[in-house]
Amino acid sequence: MFEDKLIIIRGAGDIATGTINRLYKCHFKVLCLETAKPSAIRRTVAYSEAVYSGKTTIENTTAVKVSCIDEIKNAHKNGLIPVMIDEKCDILKSLKTDVLIDAIIAKKNLGTNMSMSKLTIALGPGFEAGVDVNYVIETMRGHNLGRVIEKGFALKNTGVPGLIAGKSGERVIHSPESGVIKNIKQIGDIVKADDIIANVDNFNVKASIDGLLRGLIRDGYEVFKGMKIADIDPRLDEYENCFTISDKAKSIAGGVLEAMFMHGF
User: pTM value?
Assistant: First the structure.
């Protein structure tokens, strides 16, 4: 039904992956655009990992790295999700898209505008619906998560992670220094507060709370001081969450679909 419609998604991190996965399962042709060095924390549920590994599978859907239009077409022909390195959306010079979705989650607009596609949708703060893009989808946890905004802005970034099992800011770990990270623990490991999970040069990175290591930036990544590098889920019985798309990402994906059909797609 929708196989002739091409949807381009800027970004393929864990939140974007929820939308990409939903659209793929609804039989849309999707194309993901990423940076040359994606910095996803929840790498086990981010199609952006295909940039490094060439291929990644999430919830029975496989994404592959591509570098040209022929490879994009071949991926679609074989039921795969193409991921291309293209920060500036240069592919639009060669491919016409029906929908462009900014799912970078940069908390600011990195250049997406309404002239780029017949329908433009952005996830989260940094965009004005009706001015920068047609629709904005709320990304903050709470009552309005996934809501379609037709005029105005999403809620501003508070810098405070959503509450999970009574834990908020302490769930997230930031780099103590700039340098190259060497991981000691792996995603899915059970950790205790103060366990060493990684090193950045000569600095130890310690777990902030007890829980499951749900996210950890790729080993060997060059990080900067204060950069988000890990995420701990305090719910020890939620192991599968480390390897499945989150409720938040799926809620946002629903908002994207709603916006598309509101627009008469």
Answer: 0.94
